[in-house]
Amino acid sequence: LCGSQFWNSTETWWTNDPDFTPCFEQTVLVWTPCAFYWLFVVFDFYYLKASLDRNIPWNKLNVSKALVNVGLLVLTALDLIMGLIKKGGDGQPPLYKLDVWGPIIKFATFLLIFLFIPLNRKYGVQTTGCQFLFWFLLTVLSIPRCRTEVRADNLRRQQSEDLDFSWDEYQYASFFVFFTFTCLMLILNCFADGLPRQTKYQRGENEIPELSASFLSRITYQWFDKMALKGYRNPLEEKDLWDLRPQDSCSEVMPVFAYHWNQNVR
Questions:
Q1: pTM for the full model?
Q2: Exposed (0-12), middle (13-18) or buried (19+): which is 227, by Cβ within 10 Å?
Q3: Taking the domains of the chain in order of start, what are their residue ranges?
Q4: 134, 189 in Cβ contact below 8 A?
Q5: What is the pLDDT of residues 77-104, one digit of tens each?
Q6: Can you tell me the distance from the alpha carbon of 24 to that of 4, in angstroms, rounded to the nearest whole number?
Q7: DSSP state of 241
Q8: Cys-Cys link to 69, which of 62, 114, 168, 195 (CB 3.0-4.6 A)?
Q9: Where are the transmembrane segments (predicted)?
Q10: How many CB atoms lie within 10 A of CB 130?
């Protein structure tokens, strides 16, 4: 698959200087986030179908996501092309399955995420947990390879004075551009998109911040910090409270309750 050892417990566990093998870093640590997203992408489709809002305007956030994602698509396609050009020929390093399937798997995943950017905008989905978790996993699991690539590059510089641009040097440069774009996407996904133009419920100035909070803000309850701080400084009054979520209002809850209640009474 990689032309090198997939797993070596002597390098990873029974050593004072632990490290994963390059093959493990370029397969498991990259394909695991991709597999996670393909497995749970059904939730993103559910969010689109269940959304009650529509038409988020183009803004700096979703445009930035689209541009960075396009950059990842171009870089991944370039990895595949460079692998086919630089490897497998006379006097060149051999072409392995990883050089072909690695970029293809990443390209397919990035393309799927790219398609959701206009779809989320159209259907009013301001934030998605699946995409945030994907970029989080991809960023964190790429960190071990950062160390490996830097150490390998330093070793190459010490052992060789050849100024020709080799495949290893291309891989080093490509990975750090990839890692930079991945970090940018993680940062961008920490924020929720803009307010949709069309909504089922009227959204007022005193609406509960949870409605427009990002996934990260929701799982950490950061959106509630303002209320907690205000209650810490002064006793809360009724005027300080946010409006109830429309989905939790009596006009929405009572018909559902009455339907099941009447069924059971009959």
A1: 0.89
A2: middle
A3: 9-190, 209-265
A4: no
A5: 999 998 888 776 666 778 888 989 999 9
A6: 10
A7: S
A8: 114
A9: 28-47, 67-85, 100-120, 132-150, 170-192
A10: 20
Distance CA 151, CA 86 (A): 23
Q: Where are the alpha helices (DSSP H) in the chain?
A: 9-12, 22-50, 60-86, 97-122, 129-159, 167-188, 215-220, 225-233, 250-265
Angle CA 248–253–258, to nearest 5? 165
Ranking 108-112, 195-199, 231-235 by mean pLDDT, the lowest is 195-199
Mean pLDDT of 114-129: 94
The set of residues, in sequence order, having a beta carbon less than 8 Å from that of 263 and lying 6+ positions away, is none
Q: How long, in residues, is the chain? A: 266
Contacts 24+ apart (CB under 8 A), 211-219: 211/245, 212/126, 213/127, 214/126, 214/127, 214/132, 214/189, 214/190, 215/127, 215/128, 215/129, 215/132, 215/189, 216/132, 216/189, 216/190, 217/192, 218/127, 219/129
* Distance (Å, whole) CA 122 – CA 111: 18
Q: What percent of the chain has pLDDT over 90?
A: 63
Integer Cα distance of 203 and 243 in angstroms: 10
Does residue 216 have a pLDDT over 80?
yes
d(CA 124, CA 118): 10
Q: What residues have CB less than 8 Å from 246, skipping those under 6 apart?
A: 200, 201, 252
User: Greatest CA span in the chain, whole angstroms?
Assistant: 88
